[in-house]
Amino acid sequence: MNRKLLRRTVMLGLVLPFLYFGAASAMFVYSIYRQNATGLRLHLPNLDPPSGAQRILIFAPHCDDETLGAGGLIQRAVSAGAKVHVVMITNGDGFRVAVEREFRALRVSPRDYVRFAALRQNESLAALMCLGLHRDDVDFLGYPDRGLMALWTTNWSPDRPFTSSYTQVDRSPYERAFRPNAVYCGQYLLDDITQLLREYEPTDVFVTHPSDDHPDHAAASAFVTRAVQRLRAEGVSWATSCRLHYYLVHRGDWPVPQGLQERASLMPPAEMAGLDTAWQILPLTVREEARKRQAILTYHSQIAVMKRFLVSFVRRNELFGDLTPTIAPSVPDGLIHVDGDPNEWNGMEPVALDPVRDNLLRDFQAGGDIERIYACHDDRWLYLRVDTARPLSHRVEFRIAVRYFGDSGTGEAGGFLRVIVRSDGSPIPADLSVGEAGNRVEIALPLRAIGYSRHLAINVETLFAGLQVDRTGYRFVDL
């Protein structure tokens, strides 16, 4: 073989894998697009239209999420005479590209992020006034943008505050804030949300879905859900009948198709349809659509960098989902042997269903693509079972996180437990029992490790070579 032919052969050998991967990636992305496009023909029930007797409280992780997810709902509720209040959990100021563009600077300072927060707050007020609300109908909590998941997991108590990588502070630096100088910790955020719920006594609460791709959105869902549960546990009368609804903002390339599609419907991502979220739609009038578009366009700082995505939410309807509270059943001691045998779980319903084959990495590492979670307990152990879309891979690591709360319902009770099942099947901590078989991994956690709590929030995450393959979002389970 001459050198020229050898070089061509070597080059072909190097290029072919990339061509194959590129073609496979393109085919996968197209298949997801087609699935989502097919979902546009779903027939979903209508959300009950707002009435004058309702008190609606909407939580937004960032300034603009409330308009994207519920701009039409706000208009309809105001027209019906309902009370509507909006709470911005962060100011959405940790968006470097938008800050650089706004201040025409390649290097921005912590002070610039604080200035940008004030701008975003003003945009929110303008947008909500466009939708029929007043300044007094809005609260800004001022917690750290891109830091809410850390508050939920590692920075819970005020003696271990979170420091924003943008503003470089560990407490709220904003002039307009619900709790001035609030320390950045999960306990204070939960307390603030709970206080707002107590003051407002809503009939309906709206917040982002736990399966939203953005960590702030997933964390916001956890905080608000827990706050409502906390009040129910205390026996607060209005809380027992309060309805909790979820809206979606970030999920892959959703909404499909992106861009301004005023006559298109907004349907759930195909992979999330038919799971454990009961989806409903709120049809909008042409006038409501137009005002929602106008409100979105008042977010000038965001329109400048992501207009195509933002106007994707101007559709013929809005989309909301409900999740049913789940209970992990009690089983006889010794029933579960932690060996991956599914027969021991017969008759038990999963506590969470997770979308499968919804991105490229999950498709290639389907042994880490979480499909469902089961939970049960006996007198000593909490048993968790995680099923994946395909047989387990010895290259995938599982991380299980449990935030638990005491029966007192206070933010101080409880704690946080993280368990790792390494790719070789060994657990951290090492004294835990783990069993694997087929597409199932089981783990037994001693109830004493979670303070014998009956109120849990569980998240399962999988990783391949340090990259996140899948994440369920925190799902609430009572024992």
Description:
There is one protein chain. The chain folds into 3 domains: 1-39; 55-323, Rossmann fold; 326-478, Sandwich (Immunoglobulin-like), CATH 2.60.40. The chain is an alpha/beta fold. The protein has helices at residues 3-39, 65-80, 96-103, 110-130, 148-153, 186-200, 215-233, 237-241, 286-297, 300-310, 360-364, and strands at residues 55-60, 83-90, 138-143, 204-208, 243-247, 277-283, 317-323, 326-327, 352-353, 370-377, 381-388, 396-405, 415-421, 427-428, 433-437, 440-446, 455-464, 467-471, 475-478. Helix content is 32%, strand content 24%. Helix 2 crosses helix 9 and helix 4 (110-130) runs antiparallel to helix 9.
Keywords, please?
single chain, 479 residues, alpha/beta, Rossmann fold, Immunoglobulin-like, 3 domains, 7-stranded mixed β-sheet, 5-stranded parallel β-sheet, 11 helices
Q: Which oligomeric state applies? A: single chain
What gyration radius follows from the Cα positions, in whole Å?
Answer: 23 Å
Count of individual beta strands: 19
Report the average pLDDT across residues: 91
- What is the approximate shape? globular
- Overall CATH architecture of the largest domain: 3-Layer(aba) Sandwich
* Largest sheet, strands/sense/barrel: 7 strands, mixed
Q: State the distance separating the first and last CA atoms.
A: 71 Å
Number of discrete domains? 3
Structural class: alpha/beta
CATH topology of the largest domain: Rossmann fold
Q: What top-tier CATH class of the largest domain fits best? A: Alpha Beta
Secondary-structure element series:
HEHEHHEHHEHHEEHHEEEHEEEEEEEEEE
Report the CATH superfamily of the largest domain.
LmbE-like
Q: Spans of 5+ residues with little confidence (pLDDT < 50)?
A: 15-32
Query: How large is the count of helical segments?
Result: 11
Helical content class? 25-40%
Strand coverage percent: 15-25%
